[in-house]
Amino acid sequence: MRRLANLILPVLALLLLAILALGPAKRFTRDFLAVFSIPSGKSATLPPDMSASSLEPVSMRMARIEKENSDLRRICKIASPRGYRVVAADVTSRDPRNWMERMIVGKGEADGVSEGMVVLAFNKPQYSFKAAYSIVGRVLGTSRHTAEIATIYDRDFTLSAAIGEEMAPAVITGGPEPRLEYFNPNLIGDGEQDVRSSEFSTVCPPHVPAGSASPVAAPDAFTQPTVLPFTPWADVSGARFVIILVPDR
User: Fold this and answer.
1) Where are the beta strands (DSSP E) in the chain?
2) Gyration radius of the chain over CA positions
3) Are 75 and 212 in contact, with CB atoms under 8 Å apart?
4) In this predicted structure, what is the pLDDT of residue 63?
5) Which residue, 31, 85, 176, 233, shows the most beta carbons closer than 10 Å to its own?
6) Is residue 179 part of a domain?
7) 105: domain range?
8) How many CB atoms lie within 10 A of CB 240?
9) How far is the C-alpha of 13 from the C-alpha of 8, rounded, in Å?
10) What is the mean pLDDT of residues 114-139?
11) What is the per-residue pLDDT across 225-236, written as a single tens digit (0 to 9) for each?
């Protein structure tokens, strides 16, 4: 009897130790897995501290929101040119493959927007002393509630323009390196010239800022330049809002 007790007591002691050790382990495993489990009938969601907005640093998020609010306040102060009304639109999508050439905005036919209309955006900081905003592109196509914009860096962009104080007629031709064509070299002054929309344009009010024309040396005494490099002032890359000029009808 004593020998049997001597055999049973160590077994019971080992069993008790196993129970004490496995109990916390089971609770730890259960609590750990519960963080990643999906309750029946519910969809998977990130924990509150891993939401998409929290992944952006607070300082960056606040700076972005303040910039958006500032842009919207500035848009509200823009006066409509005679014969036009301004339609503010947010940029809803852009393809990284043609980031500088195209953008989709959240206004379309329901807002009076149609193909060919001129679009403005706020200028890069280095050109803000010239004007607050300038021409960024034209409407390429529309749907009921969206529009596709071809920017000045797109080959489908063209617009009648005027160069310098003499308002020399020219045409802005879009592309990876925008340029000015079809101008009279004798009317172009020396140095960098401001470029604005032409009074002959049928889709844009006159004198709307566009960019700068860079001077080009004549190849020789008998040949005049036929193309001038054009530098847009608009912040095409960072545009979050645009202004569409819609003609009154």
Assistant:
1) 84-93, 102-105, 118-122, 133-142, 147-151, 158-163, 168-173, 179-181, 193-197, 209-213, 227-232, 241-247
2) 32
3) no
4) 58
5) 233
6) yes
7) 82-247
8) 14
9) 9
10) 95
11) 789 999 999 999
Flag whether 27 is in a domain.
Answer: no
How far apart are alpha carbons 164 and 212 in whole angstroms? 9
pTM value is 0.70
Q: Which two structure tokens, joined as six digits, stand for 129?
A: 């002393």
The count of other CB atoms within 10 Å of the CB of residue 27 is 10
* Confidence (pLDDT) at 185: 86
CATH number reported for the structural domain that contains residue 199 in this entry: 2.40.10.340
3-state secondary structure of 125: helix
What SS3 class is residue 54? helix
Token pair, residue 201, equals 């344009």
CA 186 vs. chain centroid, Å, equals 39
Q: What is the pLDDT of residues 163-200, one digit of tens each?
A: 998 899 999 999 999 999 999 888 887 889 999 999 98
Residue 240 DSSP one-character state: S
Instruction: Report yes or no on 52 lying in a domain.
Output: no
Segment 15-33 shows an average pLDDT of 53
How many structural domains are present in the chain?
1
DSSP state of 110: G
Please give the helix or strand (H or E) that residue 19 lies within, else none: helix 2-34
